[in-house]
């Protein structure tokens, strides 16, 4: 029945939220803002520039910077973040992901990455899954980020698969919302109370059972 699985990256196939957090924390410090891990939850699945906006709003500093200055701040954070993820290897791939990909390929089901991250191609390479992935959505090529459906719709469109034959896998509320508004079957990874809009929720990616879904 299903011909395409679209995976989110951070929180689904690997964990980059700590690195994002450390990089934002450092950047925030440089402009006199203090953020903590609880606040960081609000940045998951959110694009780079929107994350900066949320940090500035949180500190009531939204109007203290010009658009050019904001771009410079976001770029500075990304340079720092990129250095941190350079150390990533196959070891950083979540348990069970490689087996799941192998099983999907055996069943002739395509695999796409639908991440908000512009660093997704680099991570896919470092994680050693380049040859498993049929398509990585470039978030710069779609109009709206999650919770809008654009990223998921782009994967289906590019690979020529009907919406009804797609499954999206996400760990963030905004991501589940994006999958559902794309009209796809939504698999949540995490807490079923938080991801209550998902069609099915597993604690971790390794718990996914294809037999349940097909
Ligand atoms: P970048 P996902 C998201 O990844 C992260 O959860 C979020 O914290 C980050 O700001 C966003 O990617 C953009 O990342 O700065 O690398 O473009 O969960 O959508 O895979
Ligand atoms: Mg995520």
Word description of this protein:
The chain is α/β, with parallel strands linked by helices and 214 residues long. The protein has 9 helices and 6 strands. The protein has helices spanning 17-30, 37-40, 48-58, 67-85, 97-106, 120-126, 150-159, 173-181, 210-213, and strands spanning 4-7, 110-113, 135-136, 166-170, 185-189, 200-202. It has a 6-stranded parallel β-sheet, with helices on both faces. Helix 1 packs across helix 4 and helix 3 packs across helix 4. The mean pLDDT is 96. The structure holds 1,6-di-O-phosphono-beta-D-glucopyranose (B16) and magnesium ion (MG). Magnesium ion (MG) is lined by residues 8, 10-12, 44-45, 171-172, 175.
Present the secondary structure layout.
Blueprint: E1 4-7, H1 17-30, H2 37-40, H3 48-58, H4 67-85, H5 97-106, E2 110-113, H6 120-126, E3 135-136, H7 150-159, E4 166-170, H8 173-181, E5 185-189, E6 200-202, H9 210-213
Parallel strand pairs: 1-2, 1-4, 2-3, 4-5, 5-6
The structure holds 1,6-di-O-phosphono-beta-D-glucopyranose (B16) and magnesium ion.
Question: What is the gist of this entry?
Answer:
The chain is of the alpha/beta class. Helices cover 41% and strands 11% of the residues. The chain binds 1,6-di-O-phosphono-beta-D-glucopyranose and magnesium ion.
The outline comes out as: globular
Order of helices and strands: EHHHHHEHEHEHEEH
Low-confidence stretches: none
End-to-end C-alpha gap: 6 Å
Give every kind of bound small molecule, once each: 1,6-di-O-phosphono-beta-D-glucopyranose, magnesium ion
Q: Which strands sit side by side, in order, in the main sheet?
A: 3-2-1-4-5-6
- SS content category: alpha/beta
Q: Helical content, roughly?
A: 40-55%
Tell me what portion of residues adopts beta-strand conformation: 5-15%
Major sheet size, sense and barrel closure: 6 strands, parallel
